[in-house]
Amino acid sequence: MKSNSLSRKLLTRVLSLYFVLTFIVTCVQIGAEYINTKNHIANELLTLEKTFSGSLTRAVWELNTQQAISIAEGLIAIPMIKGITVTDENNLIIAQLGLTADKETLYIESVRDDVNNLEYFSVSSHSEGLFGHGFPLIFEFSGRTTKVGSVTLLSSNEVIFNRIQVGIYFLIGNAMVKTAALVLLFSLAFSSLLTNPLNALTEQINQFDIDDPEASKLHVINYENNELNILQNAYNNLIDELVAYKDKLALAQSNIISANNKLDEQNLILEQEVARKTSSLSTSMLKMEMQQRELLTQQKNLQTENARRSTTEKTLLETNHELKSSIIQLKKAQERLLDAEKMAVLGSISAEVTHEINTPIGVSITSTSYLADLLTALKADIKDNKLSKRVLNDFTKNSEQGLNLVLNNLERASELVTSYKQVAVDQISEKIRQVNLGKYMDEIIHSLHPKLKKTQHKIEVYCPNDAEVYCHAGAISQIFTNLIINSIMHGFKDIERGVITILVQINGEHVHITYKDNGHGLSDEQLTHLFDPFYTTAGNRGGTGLGTYIVNNLVNDTLNGSVSANSALKQGLSYDIKFDNMH
């Protein structure tokens, strides 16, 4: 088996880390040398600016192009300068010598001198390895300064490398010499302190004799109290323990031989016991086989029972499905019945209103016929030249009475139609609109006038004049139409002068309406079922029991409010209706 030298591996890792650190430090030193040299060249460019800016400014101001070119040629002759560009005040090139940078790769950074109100700029082109300095040409005349042009001086990375070339060679040579010396020193140190002692230790360990461990102890390898010395002592201690364990092992072997003899005796006893247990086990197996047969019989019975239960469960599922379908159909029928009940109430009111309108219309027709007869008689008197002041006075008086009678009856019919139309339209519409509760209550009561006029009952409404709310007007109309009709039909049965009180209270966005009649009232049992569908106390008189159920649905679902009822026998019935303004 090929062995890996521990000292060589350790030496390799130490030297690798040293090589990396030396390389990084050398690179940093070269970079710093590069930056310092570049800054030095930039300072030299500033010195050239101070030296030649005056002569270039005068040459450009005097339009002496030849002199400007000559100065540029003198500057380009300086090894540090690799390119020069002189432009006039319109950025037109006067002289351009040496290297030039591509405008697409050229980076320009402006620096403004607020003291002299001048703008300098540095230029660089990383892709072409160029950098430089630009400055304006300012001509002073009569205390005034004028920019007559600009100059751009370019240098290159080649100039920097030429200047720091010797320094780079020195840094690299210094690093290589130090590295070689360090490698030699480390190699000698590792060889004398680690490799040779480890080899000696390995040779002694390889000479280990299992029959005579005491003679295989390690002798002194080195005289320094280090890890190798600790390893040597630990190995010698291990040899001592091995000798002690060898003696213990001989004693244990003797004990094992004695235990084996006893074990043979126990095995014989155990075989006899196994034979006895086998006989008993055969008897138990026979009993278990009989029990297994009984279990198989019970299993068959259970399978039969499970099959019967599965059939029953399937039947129950089918019945449940049919019940769900029946419930859905029942809900649809209930919704249709509710709509029919609402339309029935509206139809009843329509019939009453229609009958009520017939009376003023009939009176109007009679009055109109009477006016027509008066007009015919007047025409006859005019034709026969029998017209007199008395005839005209009688005609005027009778016509005025007839017209007043027609106008009053038509206004009465119009009011009935208007109230009924508004209430009827709202009852079939789900539109939310602004409603003045006081005026709207009057319209609802007016639409019920044909039913109320046959009685001596009285409706009192207490509502603020500014009770303006946004709500489902149709829901309000249906609620109070059902409540008033219920009071008339049930609460005021056999009562000649019933009183209905409606109190409207507005508290911010909350609306609280109290409806109360002084009718017969309800017992506790009847009050419990008041809002149940199809519950009525007047089934023999055509009642469906859906009036209060519709009221409850409209308040809770349509108005998002709540309704509660309170009553006692002979003390009337009251409703508390609460909902919020919906705007």
- Give the CATH H-level superfamily of the domain at 6-181: PAS domain
Let me know the number of strands.
13
Number of helices: 10
Strand order of the largest sheet: 2-1-6-5-4-3
Helix content: 55-70%
Q: Gap between N and C termini, in Å? A: 93 Å
**Multimerization state:** single chain
Q: Report on the biggest sheet.
A: 6 strands, antiparallel
Question: Can you write the helix and strand succession as a string?
Answer: HHEEEEEEHHHEHHEEHEEHHEE
Which geometry do the CA atoms define? flat
Structural commentary:
Among the domains are: about 5-180, Beta-Lactamase, CATH 3.30.450.20; about 430-580, Histidine kinase-like ATPase, C-terminal domain (Heat Shock Protein 90, 2-Layer Sandwich). The radius of gyration is 61 Å and the shape is flat. The model has no long low-confidence stretch (mean pLDDT about 80). It is built from 10 helices and 13 strands. It has helices spanning about 5-60, 65-75, 155-205, 225-385, 390-425, 435-445, 450, 475-490, 525-530, 545-560; strands spanning about 85-90, 95-100, 105-115, 120-125, 130-140, 145-155, 430-435, 460, 470, 500-505, 510-515, 560-565, 575-580. A hairpin with a 2-residue loop joins strand 10 (about 500-505) and strand 11 (about 510-515). Strands 2-1-6-5-4-3 form a 6-stranded antiparallel sheet. A 5-stranded mixed sheet has the order 8-10-11-13-12, with helices on one face. It has a two-stranded antiparallel ribbon with strand order 7-9. The two termini are about 95 Å apart. Helix content is about 65%, strand content about 15%. By secondary structure, it is α+β, with helices and mostly antiparallel strands.
